[in-house]
Amino acid sequence: MATSSPRVRFAPSPTGYLHVGGARTALFNYLFARNRGGKFLLRIEDTDRERSSDEMTSQILDAMEWLGLEVDEPPVHQADGLERHRTDAGKLLAAGRAWRCFASQEELAGIRAELREQGRPLRREAVPGHGDEESAARLAAGEPFALFFAIPEGSTTFDDIVHGPTTVEHAHMDDFVVLRSDGTPVYNLAVVSDDIQMGITHVLRGDDHLSNTPKQVLIYDALGADLPRFGHLPMILGSDGKRLSKRHGAASVEAFRA
Fold first, then answer.
1. Which among 25, 31, 190, 220 could disulfide-bond with 185, CB atoms 3.0 to 4.6 Å apart, if both were Cys?
2. Where are the alpha helices (DSSP H) in 36-125?
3. Side-chain half-sphere CA neighbours of 120 within 13 A
4. CB 44 within 8 A of CB 76
5. Active-site residue (options: 39, 91, 242, 246)
6. How far apart (Å, rounded) are the C-alpha atoms in residues 140 and 160?
7. Which helix (H) or strand (E) is 76 found in, with range?
8. Catalytic annotation on 246?
9. How high is the mean pLDDT in each 10-residue block of the chain (258 residues)?
């Protein structure tokens, strides 16, 4: 559990300019760390190599410096943790908490659609040809596969700093991808692996991440790691009540600075 000296992080993706909503989240983390004598860290989430750029990383760093949000340790790049992400995915598989999925995206889309009509979640047993023997044979044949996290029975409850105790029934959750067939990690696995590595004690972020939290709590549990405290902040909205974006006018720190 969280220690008396918190370690928090701001984790933007360098796929565009720093949004004012992101800057606000960074400010909450910065002030929380300063108020409690903790550490404010920065992680550049650059695993999306096609959309990430060094130019946007530089812009984010420049905008944070202009805002006075000084980080306490050198920035971490998520892409540097790829082998650790894969190792952690392997731990999930070895512990029986994940399964190999050999189905194509088209096959899965059809299965998901059928299950939705029946009001059922995606589980391994709903995917044809994925029993233990079939899986072993397909693995031996060299077929590519993605790794899916296996949702257990029951429910997940976490005490959100903003929302209070929050419970999600597992019956409403699909088994979800943690490692793509090309060996790259999906967001939920990568952030948990990184936060464990960085010793993060409090995860303070926007409400748009609230739906990810039950999945991440399950991954923490499966990896046998201490759970951080979560706090999900309300989003900045435009005058139309929708999430602030370019259609409302200035939405980036750079635009406000200019």
1. 190
2. 54-67, 82-94, 105-118
3. 12
4. yes
5. 246
6. 44
7. strand 76-77
8. yes
9. 78 90 96 98 86 86 96 96 98 97 95 95 94 92 96 97 97 96 95 98 96 97 98 88 69 86
Q: Which amino acid would we find at residue 156? A: T
Structure token pair of residue 7: 């370690």
Amino acid, res. 234: P
